[in-house]
Amino acid sequence: MCTILKIIQLIWFLAYASLFCADFSTGIPAIKIADSPSNEAVIIDDQGLARLFFVNRPGNADRIMSMDWTGENWTNPRVEFTIPGKAYYAL
Fold this sequence. Notes:
A four-stranded antiparallel beta sheet has the order 1-2-3-4, with no helix packed on it. Helix content is about 20%, strand content about 25%. By secondary structure, the chain is of the alpha+beta class. The mean pLDDT is about 75.
């Protein structure tokens, strides 16, 4: 009897835990549009305009830069703001 209860608990646990492992992003396919100018960058949807933010690394790593997606390519990088000291890759 105890073994059956443990099996039922294990099945319930696995079924419940599978909800946390499910991929709910299947409705939004990932599409590569262009290479990133940096190892790590963050893309933001700015009212329908894709904007890419990154640290100017390699380089002095003292600025946050951004680029806009034109539909065919990224615009030239521009400085959003400078930061004190040096940043690593991630924003």
